[in-house]
Amino acid sequence: MTAPHPPPAPRPRRPERPRRPRPRGGLGGHLIGAYGLLALTALLVVVFSFALPRTFPTSDTVDSILSTQSIPAVLALAAMVPIVTGAFDLSIGYGLGLAHVMVLYLIVEAGWSWPLACLAVVVGGLVVGVLNGVVVEFGRIDSFIATLGTGSMMYAVTGWITDGGRIVPGAGGLPAAFTDLYTSTFLGLPVPAFYVLVLAVALWLVLERLPIGRYLYVVGSNPRAADLVGIPVRKYTVCAFAASGLIVGCAGVLLAAQQQIGNPSVGLDYLLPAFVGALLGSTAIRPGRPNAMGTLVAVAVLAVGLTGIAQLGADFWTVPLFHGGTLLLAVGLAGYTARRRVRDGAVADRAASAPTPGHSPGADTTGGPP
What we know:
The protein is an all-alpha fold. It has helices at 26-51, 59-68, 70-84, 92-109, 114-137, 143-162, 176-183, 191-209, 211-221, 223-228, 233-259, 271-281, 292-311, 318-353; strands at 185-186, 189-190. Helices cover 68% and strands 1% of the residues. A hairpin with a 2-residue loop joins strand 1 (185-186) and strand 2 (189-190). Helix 5 packs antiparallel against helix 11 (233-259), helix 9 (211-221) packs across helix 11 and helix 12 (271-281) crosses helix 13.
């Protein structure tokens, strides 16, 4: 007789993958956090359109918002780049004032051609940004203190160049090609709006799609960990300040084409709105991290709100009140979203490292004999 065949061995079972927990609030909470500011912008447009049906929902209002808010938007994007690395550049307002004064000084007083003057100012902004980064990183000075000091020095240079007065063009005025940088239109819209759009898209591509953007975010979230994995923290922080200075130089050229008069104190008016837009933008699109598109949405909220308030006939003091209150709200929301993101990531990591239900960590999962 032949021996009976042994029963077939059971097939090995695959261990179940632990489910990644959803963020608190589920999908709806995520959408509200990411696109809440965008929805708020639409809501403000609807409210002001009903409250001011003759003045607010018009093409003139749209053109006014797109043109007057272009410089605050550019400066907010400039402030956003160092914030990615966990630093703050308080010199951007002083740099804006110096840049626009220098453009007009070189054109009006020194007799330079306007393209050469603009190029020199933009390169100068880049150099100032590099110096800010070197002072912060290699001088080991807190970014608040360092950039406030360099900003005060730039303000002194601005006063020295203008001798405390204004730079006013002669009877011939400024070259028409130069003023067209701000006053011209494209596709029926003010051309400065397209500058902002191109800059925002470029920063979004760099920060979200290129390795340098990932390195900048790592430096901002944990500089010690970035240094341990071989990321040159000092190099990328200096690069962030350099990019900020370059953008401020471009904003100074645009401001000079808008104002057409060199005012040594005008740049400081843009400092607070820039940081409000940059910090509030870190709560939108990619909550918990500064990002270009979120900054653009935040600037849109501020622009619509300020325009509606102005058309309602509010007093002049409502503008700083609005900016100050929004800044406090932006800082609070940015801190909350950052803490929430870290907390959800920690919960997900603990769930991923937990043993599979029904199996002990050292249990045999092959299904065969021990």
